[in-house]
């Protein structure tokens, strides 16, 4: 039986349960029904209730709203922040290790491209690489299924909200989108496993996750994949810290024209690390 969320501050009429960038342009500030669900703000923080983000960087609504966010608890949000700013803020405030951790883990798993920001319970997926520009996002932890309407259009259907389902359409997606979604779900699954393993080893806590109706719990989409092997939170964070140190040394070497600093850094970095002992 599908999990049902009892409240959702979005229109219940079937006419307003399907959304796309084109439909937003036709309805926002033009449709009185939609108006009662709108919230205008200059800031927003991604959370578990975020459903989708459509970017309007080039053609902001009212000249200032660069993104439209669907939030199942708050409604339809016109936000002055761009989609890239929304993701960056979320990464800085909520992500373990930030975006560098996400990229390092993806590299360890041999996953190419950057299409997902994940925490184990949350997974935000971009239709294009988020390194390229402001892009649209869909929250896979709120999605139950998706299908391709054409070679250029994909539609995502949400989980059940007390008998209501919402669909979000996107155009101009990658031709490898199915593989990218599969990889994104696997990536989120690995983070969930790493967190569970870390809690069990270091805190003696067993983290159990109930199987839900969203894509992040549907293993058929992301198996088989490479096993995580000896990956751990500590090893990945250590790798991130080492790369940060190296990046800083490269900056100094370039700024002061002292290339030998790069080689000397190996000794400095080693000496700067306090041994993991009691003494």
TrEMBL record:
Source organism, top-level taxon: Bacteria
Official protein name in the record: Uncharacterized protein
């Amino acid at each position: 039986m599908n999990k049902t969320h009892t409240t959702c501050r979005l229109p219940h009429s079937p006419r307003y349960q399907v959304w796309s960038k084109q439909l937003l342009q036709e309805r926002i500030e033009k449709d009185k029904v939609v108006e009662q669900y709108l919230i205008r703000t200059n800031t927003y923080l991604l959370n578990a209730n975020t459903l989708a983000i459509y970017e309007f960087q080039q053609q902001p609504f009212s000249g200032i709203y660069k993104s439209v966010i669907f939030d199942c608890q708050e409604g339809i949000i016109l936000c002055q922040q761009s989609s890239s700013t929304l993701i960056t803020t979320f990464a800085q405030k909520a992500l373990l290790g930030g975006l560098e951790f996400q990229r390092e883990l993806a590299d360890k798993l041999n996953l190419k491209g950057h299409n997902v920001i994940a925490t184990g319970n949350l997974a935000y997926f971009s239709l294009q690489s988020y390194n390229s520009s402001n892009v649209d996002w869909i929250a896979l932890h709120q999605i139950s299924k998706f299908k391709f309407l054409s070679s250029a259009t994909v539609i995502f259907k949400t989980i059940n909200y007390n008998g209501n389902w919402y669909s979000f359409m996107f155009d101009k997606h990658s031709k490898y989108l199915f593989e990218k979604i599969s990889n994104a779900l696997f990536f989120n699954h690995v983070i969930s496993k790493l967190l569970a393993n870390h809690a069990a080893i270091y805190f003696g806590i067993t983290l159990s996750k109930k199987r839900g109706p969203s894509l992040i719990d549907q293993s058929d989409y992301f198996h088989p994949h490479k096993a995580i092997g000896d990956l751990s939170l500590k090893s990945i964070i250590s790798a991130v810290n080492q790369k940060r140190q190296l990046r800083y040394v490269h900056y100094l070497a370039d700024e002061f024209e002292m290339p030998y600093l790069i080689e000397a850094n190996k000794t400095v970095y080693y000496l700067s690390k306090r041994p993991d002992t009691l003494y």
